[in-house]
Amino acid sequence: MSAAPLTLSFMSANYVARELGYGAAAEWGPFDAATNAAFEPIETFPERFDALLASITGIGFDAIDLWFAHLNWRWATPEHVAIARDALERHGVGVVAFAGGIGETVADVEAACRLANDLDVDLIAGLGGIVHTDRSGAAAVLDAHGVRFGLENHPERTPGDVLAAIDDESSLGAAVDTGWWATQGYDPVDAIRELSDRLFHVHLKDVEEPGTHVSCMHGMGCARIADCVDALVELVYSGVLTVEHEPYDRDPTAECARMLTLLRDQLANAETGHRV
């Protein structure tokens, strides 16, 4: 049994295609830009952020990975933060991590960390160009703010690439994205085991086939989600398991609800404590 209950979280980027419209594009960029554009205006932010949380709690989650496009260190004001804190409290939702990139400069990392501090979040999991160009500078800022950063594998082709990027900095670790390991043709189960000593966070995503990155229901693709969960239980991982499913062509809500049920059933059968 796990040393502590696992937390099951919903990735708010699952709604990447909601603001632009499902099926409106075939790549991430336009959806990302549309979401930032929709959430930045302070006049409509309360309504949009409230609707986002209502969709998530409606299927049984009370923990989220908050995607930066929904509250971005590049544009968030103290008023945005106050509104977000109020909405999270009203909906009974905890932010277990911010999701997204921390930028390319020390100033970017500083801004991201300040936002994390403002929401009492101690982990950011995502892309970090600066980790490859100024690892020590990024680590110094993270340390100063008491924030950890989990480097999420996207271009990295092996766990060795991730370990080389984070080196031995205590504030840097790995955020495993099972879907991206599968896309790269690397067994996600092996990646979890090889990164277990530096594992900060896990995004459970399935993809249709290696070499592409088409998100699908857990168990319908090639990422071996059930085996990944078994490996994490065996390793006595006690962090967060984030349900991630970001289709461009359809609303993922119902599928995420089914994925949560599957995940809870598997953990219950393994006698592993968990909370949603």
What does this protein look like?
The structure is a single chain. The chain is built from 11 helices and 11 strands. An 8-stranded parallel barrel has the order 1-2-3-4-5-6-7-10, surrounded by 5 helices. The longest helix has 17 residues, at 253-269. It has 276 residues and is of the alpha/beta class. The two termini are 17 Å apart.
Q: Topology, pairings included?
A:
Layout: E1 6-11, H1 28-39, H2 45-57, E2 63-67, H3 78-91, E3 94-99, H4 106-118, E4 123-126, H5 129-133, H6 135-145, E5 148-152, H7 159-166, E6 172-177, H8 178-183, H9 188-195, E7 199-204, E8 206-207, E9 215-216, H10 225-234, E10 240-243, H11 253-269, E11 274-275
Parallel strand pairs: 1-2, 1-10, 1-11, 2-3, 3-4, 4-5, 5-6, 6-7, 7-10
Antiparallel strand pairs: 8-9
Strand content: 15-25%
Which structural category do the helix and sheet elements fall into? Answer: alpha/beta
Spans of at least 5 consecutive residues with low confidence: none
Rounded Rg: 17 Å
- N-end to C-end Cα span: 17 Å
What's the short story on this structure?
The protein is an alpha/beta fold and 276 residues long. The chain has helices at 28-39, 45-57, 78-91, 106-118, 129-133, 135-145, 159-166, 178-183, 188-195, 225-234, 253-269, and strands at residues 6-11, 63-67, 94-99, 123-126, 148-152, 172-177, 199-204, 206-207, 215-216, 240-243, 274-275. It has an 8-stranded parallel β-barrel with strand order 1-2-3-4-5-6-7-10, surrounded by 5 helices. A two-stranded antiparallel ribbon has the order 8-9.
